[in-house]
Design goal:
Number of strands: 2
Shape: globular
Largest sheet: 2 strands, parallel
Strand content: under 5%
Number of helices: 18
Mean pLDDT: 88
Length: 350
């Protein structure tokens, strides 16, 4: 197996942050109160305004997170606004016409171009045409790591070599040593470049988490590696203790955030899935209470065309099933045999 850490030796950077407090969890609300991919109270008004064709709220939101160097939210809002613009582009086209050289309009345009190219069979070729947009976004604000996260995704989609990817990674971590989006992009590049190299993915994820602050989302990187292993179906076996350790680290991270909080919702949904695959229903019930109403498409859209409905079925079983084993259909996708460790994650997944 190729030694990925030798090829990409700069993947780890230390720093420290401030801890956030947690609140006790309550029972989840009724099924009809659950929501899928709910925006937080800062993003929601921007999406509502964009739905009316107005871009000012979105522009102000991205400007505020950029000014505050709030890079995790900055990245999250760029992704969500770009997803909205794919189906409702008028507000963004008006923004881009009004501020063609604005850093946030350039950034959103780069994300949108990558998103539009990704589903195509000609992805690699189309993505090469997007490179100037990413370069322009990176030059517009040299502090911002999000253009570099987009560049890392772009490198994976265009099948760039590891030396070029390593240069992008160096630039990303100089700007934000523990940016979760950049770490996820790097992990996914490793998984794609050396398919089945799960031990190497765990090595990278574990080292990054060990160097990250206790409340950083990078603490969830090993459980993302576990998700990749459990849904991939190839490569050497990963010891059970390593899978449990990844889950335990994510459990500790989840406990540092308030219950029913949209910020860690995707981490908690992913962790819930991994705990179910590992046969840890009691721990899964704890995460269910912490999730509250905040279901996320990932990972349930890997199992069903109706991710919210699938989440509700999982929740109903955990709340009423007692000690009964979780049905295989709730934790295994169509290409995911229950007697193996995985199926296949779609190439464009985040």
């Amino acid at each position: 197996m190729v030694d990925t850490m030798a090829l990409l030796p700069s993947f780890i950077r230390p720093t420290r942050m401030t801890k956030r407090s947690a609140r006790p969890a309550g029972r989840p609300p009724a099924g009809d109160e659950a929501v899928l991919d709910a925006p937080d109270d800062r993003l929601s008004p921007a999406l509502v305004a964009a739905g009316r064709g107005e871009y000012t709220a979105a522009a102000e939101l991205l400007a505020a997170t950029r000014a505050a160097a709030d890079w995790e939210n900055h990245d999250r809002y760029v992704r969500r606004l770009a997803a909205f613009a794919r189906s409702r582009p008028e507000w963004f086209e008006e923004w881009r016409a009004a501020a063609p050289d604005g850093p946030d309009a350039l950034l959103l345009g780069a994300q949108l171009a990558v998103d539009r190219a990704w589903p195509s069979p000609a992805r690699a070729e189309l993505l090469r045409e997007v490179s100037p947009l990413i370069t322009a976004a990176a030059r517009a604000d040299d502090r911002d790591p999000v253009p570099w996260r987009i560049a890392l995704d772009h490198a994976r989609g265009s099948r760039a070599g590891h030396r070029y990817f390593g240069e992008l990674w160096e630039a990303a971590v100089r700007r934000a040593p523990h940016h979760y989006g950049c770490h996820v992009a790097a992990l996914r590049y490793l998984a794609a470049f050396w398919h089945g190299a799960h031990q190497e993915c765990f090595d990278f994820a574990d080292r990054a988490a060990q160097d990250a602050p206790a409340e950083s989302l990078v603490q969830a990187l090993p459980v993302r590696a576990a998700f990749g292993y459990l849904t991939d179906g190839c490569g050497p076996e990963v010891p059970r203790r390593r899978l449990d350790a990844a889950a335990d680290r994510a459990v500790a991270l989840s406990g540092r955030f308030p219950a029913a909080d949209p910020w860690p919702a995707e981490v908690r949904n992913k962790l819930l899935y991994v705990l179910l695959r590992l046969g840890r229903p009691e721990d899964a019930r704890v995460q269910l209470r912490l999730i509250g109403p905040y279901a996320t498409s990932f990972p349930w859209d890997r199992l069903s065309e109706d991710p919210l409905g699938h989440f509700l079925r999982v929740r109903e079983h955990l709340l009423t099933g007692g000690s009964r084993a979780v049905p295989a259909g709730l934790v295994h996708g169509p290409a995911d045999p229950p007697d193996g460790h995985g199926g296949h994650v779609r190439a464009g997944d985040h």
